[in-house]
């Protein structure tokens, strides 16, 4: 097959969003500095367990510092209604809205728009409704009760052929991946990263318990936690839907309410630092024989050589921002060029024939 040389030109440094970091307590993550892999996850688990005050499920609906503070729509309609990831339409008016101060909460519903309740992203049956996970605001959000019910206890995944779709485009359908065949739930693109970071939080906060939980996404370990196909999906969602202002505000308000934070919102690069080696080494969804050199590079240039034709190139900052995306890139003498990008740390995702490989690259 044809060898392809990709040349990436890069120029200046990468910074966290000021909004993302300005409310993190000084020194909160100091004890995690210098660690990577599952050791880093354990360090983060200790940090976010300290200070965590467990609250009941019902308290989420009654305490003004809970859902009434964390999940208000100040970002789309900006009307003070409940921001529900299962009904929100980011690009137009919502089909319906709920209010915290009306009689909109319920447990009985016949269809969408009847009422809202609390969605456990990791189903409460997984841990027998035990505290503190059953009331952990970092892994619960207010959602339409009927859509919540349709999601059921299914894992999160990409669904190709849905057999049910909500009014905002969330889908339920059958999937078949290594280790699981059955129904899955796919939220809309706007909130995929939010949900991925929630699940990464759960895997970290409950590291000492999660290996005993039976959930289709989990592999029975306390280190990797997720079966590889689901881990690949969550990682892709995390990268392609970067941390939003809504998440940052929610994390800050949750810290006030509960006393701990979601580290993957504060530091999105932690996802790659914890799970990156597994993703890059053992992923079956990769382009064959891809090499990156020099890496690190002191010349503002990275070469990527592959045995396959490249269909798409994505250059993604370490905090999840998609810097450039080139589909079916033009090339001259098998050389592809991306220019005018700041120097720093990046993920370079190269896709070909519905497969992809993601490499971490460093430009000094």
TrEMBL record:
It comes from Flavobacterium azooxidireducens. The keyword Magnesium does not apply. Residues 292-363 form the Secretion system C-terminal sorting domain. Transmembrane segments: none annotated. Belongs to the EndA/NucM nuclease family. It comes from the Bacteria. This is Endonuclease. One of its GO terms (molecular function) is endonuclease activity. Keywords: Endonuclease, Hydrolase, Nuclease, Signal. The keyword Signal applies.
């Amino acid at each position: 097959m044809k060898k392809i040389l990709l040349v990436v030109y890069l120029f200046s440094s990468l910074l966290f969003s000021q909004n993302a970091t300005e409310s993190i307590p000084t020194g909160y993550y100091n004890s995690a500095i210098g660690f990577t892999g599952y050791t880093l996850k354990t360090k983060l688990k200790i940090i976010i367990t300290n200070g965590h005050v467990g609250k009941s499920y019902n308290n989420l609906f009654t305490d003004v510092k809970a859902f009434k503070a964390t999940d208000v729509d100040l970002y789309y309609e900006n009307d003070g209604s409940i921001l529900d990831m299962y009904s929100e339409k980011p690009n137009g008016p919502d089909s319906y809205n709920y209010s915290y101060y009306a009689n909109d909460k319920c447990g009985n519903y016949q269809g969408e728009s009847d009422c809202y309740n609390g969605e456990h992203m990791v189903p409460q049956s997984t841990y027998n409704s035990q505290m503190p996970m059953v009331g952990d605001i970092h892994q619960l959000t207010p959602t339409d009760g009927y859509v919540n019910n349709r999601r059921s206890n299914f894992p999160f995944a990409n669904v190709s052929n849905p057999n049910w779709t909500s009014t905002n485009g969330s889908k339920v359908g059958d999937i078949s991946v290594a280790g699981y065949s059955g129904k899955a739930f796919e939220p809309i693109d706007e909130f995929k990263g939010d949900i991925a970071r929630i699940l990464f939080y759960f895997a970290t906060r409950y590291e000492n318990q999660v290996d005993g939980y039976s959930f289709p996404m989990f592999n029975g370990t306390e280190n990797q936690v997720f079966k590889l196909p689901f881990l690949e999906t969550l990682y892709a969602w995390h990268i392609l839907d970067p941390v939003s202002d809504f998440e940052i505000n929610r994390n800050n308000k949750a810290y006030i309410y509960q006393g701990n934070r979601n580290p993957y919102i504060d530091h999105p690069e932690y996802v790659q630092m914890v799970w990156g080696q597994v993703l890059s080494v053992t992923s079956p969804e990769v382009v064959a024989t891809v090499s990156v050199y020099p890496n690190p590079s002191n010349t503002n240039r990275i070469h990527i050589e592959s045995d396959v034709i490249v269909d798409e190139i994505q250059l993604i900052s370490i905090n999840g921002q998609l810097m450039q995306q080139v589909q079916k890139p033009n090339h001259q003498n098998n050389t592809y060029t991306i220019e005018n990008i700041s120097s720093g740390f990046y993920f370079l995702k190269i896709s070909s024939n519905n497969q992809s490989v993601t490499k971490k690259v460093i430009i000094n």
